[in-house]
Design goal:
Layout (H helix, E strand, L loop, with lengths): L6 H12 L2 H13 L5 E5 H7 L1 H9 L1 H13 L13 E5 L20 E12 L2 E11 L5 E5 L25 E3 L5 E11 L13 E7 L11 E12 L9 E12 L11 H12 L3 H7 L9 H12 L4 E2 L5 E2 L4 E6 L5 H11 L3 E5 L10 E4 L9 E4 L1 H4 L4 E5 L6 H12 L2 E6 L2 E6 L3 E6 L20 H4 L4 E5 L5 H21 L12 H7 L9 H11 L5 E2 L1 H16 L10 H17 L4 E2 L1 H19 L9 H4 L9 H12 L4 E2 H10 L4 H13 L3 E3 L4 E4 L1
Helix pairs in contact: 1-5, 3-4, 4-5, 7-8, 8-17, 16-17, 16-18, 17-18, 20-22
The structure holds adenosine-5'-diphosphate and magnesium ion.
The site of magnesium ion (MG) has 3 residues, from helix 9.
Length: 697
């Protein structure tokens, strides 16, 4: 049974707690600096020290207890007597019992003090709200204070001054807006942190109201704990209903201290982590632990493994910072498991977020100032995927389908890891210190054989150059590979089916044990739990490059650079930074304090492989200009020619024959023209009328 407390006992409890030096000094400080300082922070541990029973009682009856605490604190400051003057008592460090996941908030929690953790997804601008209105009687001039608890202004019913000469009959009052009392208010929506979610569940959200001196402290993307009282409001004003919407009446906000705090590493874990780090097969094992149900994609998985660890964030003597986070782009034919890989990584990576480029939210991938129902008419700052993935991994699928707004703000986000929003009185800079793993489809849906790859990527060149590594994944029929993938996918399904059976269950025609053994390679070498801990642990290390490693990177960079042969720039300093980040990640993966030749070679292998694939020119050299500028110098491609023909002569449409003729003038044969026409139709740039005439859309 929980103990109950009488009003006098509650007051006595606070008097006792506030008599401690710590609180006496703080209250005196508030008295001296009011209203610049008006909140008294109370550590829950101190209430608990006073009495465990009382501390429990406070959680269950916060309204009465907090009112009493305010009274107790203010009794120590005699000069506070103007309407609206009060000390805010803000309890922090609530115990674990008071922590509730948003999805677990229930009717039981109503009017109780709870601590809710999450990501601030939306925050409104700070607006003042009138709490105490000063009215003057229009006839006798008497002053009246009216408490304003709700949204609509409440006026006095009649003049309250018996000696005013209006005989208390007056019903007209003038509001003194200037002398009335206001407090700042802000509305915040938080959603569950990704690490708390299991199996791709949608994050739940709750709204909190923050008032007075703590309004404006939170910005979108912050990871916070809202301590507050759960309250309810009727869903609609008009139809009285019995279903209530809940919200948090926030009494204090706590910001998270350390990024990897949420991952607990025990002494046993540490032993295991150190043991893993000594394994010569560590790199392979980690690669094998990345989405093992996906066959192949080895170099992609190697790169992603390094991305998990990331390079080092550095600050220079002059204050410039260099990002350590790596960005990887996968461009590939449909059905090559891009989405599946992204989903897996958003689950595996600490603070992983999965989002699609064509997401429905106004904030999109970055952030936006919006004016919607949430703000009740005021502007709201809404965080997008990259901000929510701050200090984590943002897995962005269908990047090519992103909105124009994202297209223009993504460069800044990826390079300086900040997003600035300046609109309608909101000026904010949001942090998005995340790595990005993105996927996109080729321009015409599928890679075409005889056109250069760089020409088939429909992303702004400036954006492309922000990626450390770009992988091209084609899906061409290939007997050997097809057989292997087929085997692998079927084996994965078989293993999955067997795993769903009960222990000891048998079935005719299948050797359950044999299936499990044969498909053991589909089980990750390290399970997700320990791998996350390992990654979190590695963040403690900032490795330093050896001269050997430096030389290897330098040689490779200069060698590739010289392949351009004067006319083209095969590689830029951006790729040099990619080398560095990759090699640092490799060292961090080994928990090594130094970046050695081994790490440098791993980096060089990955970058050279990617360049060969994407920027490889016919003569064996590299031509990064294809990516960096979007237009390759050599082959102005066939699609462009036909597009140009359509633009120039296609005003009223062109028949197939006319197009063939124009194509021939430009040196294209009939199949090339036909192919280009098909690609342009697929892309929706042109269409064919029933009469067989091609027109531009
Ligand atoms: P994408 O996003 O590239 O279009 P998806 O991730 O949607 O492709 O993959 C389509 C399906 O094909 C998935 O169910 C996936 O399991 C399967 N698949 C494709 N390639 C592989 C592979 N290499 N190994 C295992 N499964 C694969
Ligand atoms: Mg996909």
């Amino acid at each position: 049974m929980s103990v109950t407390f009488q009003d006098s006992e509650i007051l006595a409890a606070w008097d006792d707690i506030f008599s401690k030096d710590k609180y006496r000094i703080n209250i005196a400080c508030i008295a001296d600096n009011y209203p610049q300082k008006k909140s008294l922070m109370v550590d829950y541990a101190d209430i608990n020290t006073y009495s465990v029973d009382f501390a429990m009682y406070v959680l269950d009856n916060p309204d009465a207890c907090l009112a009493s605490a305010r009274k107790s604190a203010m009794s120590l400051v005699p000069s506070m007597n103007r309407p609206g003057e009060a000390i805010n008592v803000r309890i922090v460090n609530l115990p674990r019992d008071a922590k509730v996941e948003i999805r677990n908030l229930r009717a039981d929690h109503l009017r109780k003090l709870v601590a809710v953790e999450g990501l601030a997804r939306k925050v409104t601008t700070v607006k003042p709200r009138m709490t105490h209105a000063l009215f003057r009687c229009a006839r006798c001039g008497a002053e009246m204070w009216v408490l304003q608890p709700g949204m609509l202004l409440k006026e006095p019913m009649m003049c309250s001054n018996p000696e005013g000469g209006c005989n208390k009959q007056a019903t007209r009052f003038n509001l003194d807006e200037k002398a009335s009392v206001y407090i700042d208010t802000q509305k915040i929506e938080i959603q569950e942190s990704p690490e708390g979610l299991r199996g791709g569940a949608q994050p739940e959200r709750i709204t909190g109201y923050v008032e007075d001196d703590i309004a404006g402290e939170v910005t979108a993307g912050n990871r916070i704990t809202l301590n507050g009282i759960l309250r309810s409001v009727e869903k609609t004003e008009r139809d009285k209903s019995t279903v209530f919407e809940t919200y948090l009446d926030v009494i204090s906000v706590e910001f998270e201290q350390h990024e990897y705090d949420e991952i607990q590493i025990t002494a046993d874990d540490e032993k295991e982590i150190l043991r893993m780090s000594k394994d010569p097969d560590l790199y392979d094992n980690i690669v094998k632990s990345i989405s093992p149900s996906i066959y192949g994609l080895d170099s992609v998985k190697r790169a992603i493994a390094l991305q998990l660890f990331g390079g080092c964030h550095k600050e220079m003597d002059d204050g410039t910072v260099m990002r350590g986070d790596m960005h990887i782009l996968l461009i590939g034919d449909p059905g090559v498991a891009k989405s599946q890989l992204l989903r897996y990584m958003s689950m595996l990576a600490p603070r992983g977020i999965y989002a699609s480029g064509k997401s429905a939210s106004a904030a999109g991938l970055t952030a936006a100032a919006v004016r919607d129902d949430f703000g009740d008419g005021r502007w709201t700052l809404e965080a997008g995927a990259l901000v929510l993935a701050d200090k984590g991994l943002a897995c962005i699928d269908e990047l090519d389908k992103m909105t124009d707004q994202d297209r223009s703000s993504l460069h800044e986000a990826m390079e300086s890891q900040r997003i600035s929003v300046a609109k309608a009185g909101i000026t904010a800079t949001l942090q998005c210190r995340c790595s990005m793993l993105a996927a996109a489809n080729p321009k015409y849906g599928r890679f075409e054989e005889d056109t250069s790859i760089a020409d088939q990527i429909d992303l702004p060149p400036a954006l492309m150059s922000r990626f450390d590594l770009i992988f091209v994944l084609t899906d061409k029929p290939d007997k050997k590979k097809d057989t292997a993938i087929t085997e692998h996918i079927l084996a994965a399904h078989q293993r999955g089916q067997v795993r769903m059976m009960h222990d000891g269950e048998t079935v005719e025609g299948v050797d359950v044990k044999e299936v499990l053994e044969r498909t053991a390679n589909i089980r990750p070498v390290y399970d997700v739990e320990i791998l996350r801990k390992y990654v979190a642990y590695s963040k403690r290390i900032t490795p330093v490059m050896t001269d050997d490693a430096k030389r290897i990177i330098e040689d490779s960079f200069l060698r590739i650079r010289s392949m351009g042969g004067g006319n083209t720039v095969p590689i830029t300093a951006r790729q040099l930074e990619a080398f560095v980040r990759l090699s640092e990640a490799s060292a961090k993966m080994r928990l090594s304090p130094v970046v050695t030749d081994l790490d440098a070679n791993r980096a060089v292998d990955l970058v050279e492989e990617y360049l060969r694939r994407i920027a490889g020119s016919d003569d064996g050299g590299f031509d990064i200009d294809k990516i960096a500028t979007g237009i390759s110098s050599k082959d102005r491609n066939k699609i462009d020619i036909i597009r140009g023909v359509m633009r120039e002569y296609g005003g009223d449409g062109l028949s197939s024959d006319e197009l063939m003729q124009h194509g021939a003038n430009e040196g294209l044969d009939e199949t090339e023209v036909a192919r280009a026409l098909k690609q342009l139709s697929d892309a929706g740039e042109i269409y064919k009328t029933p009469a067989g005439i091609y027109k531009r859309t």
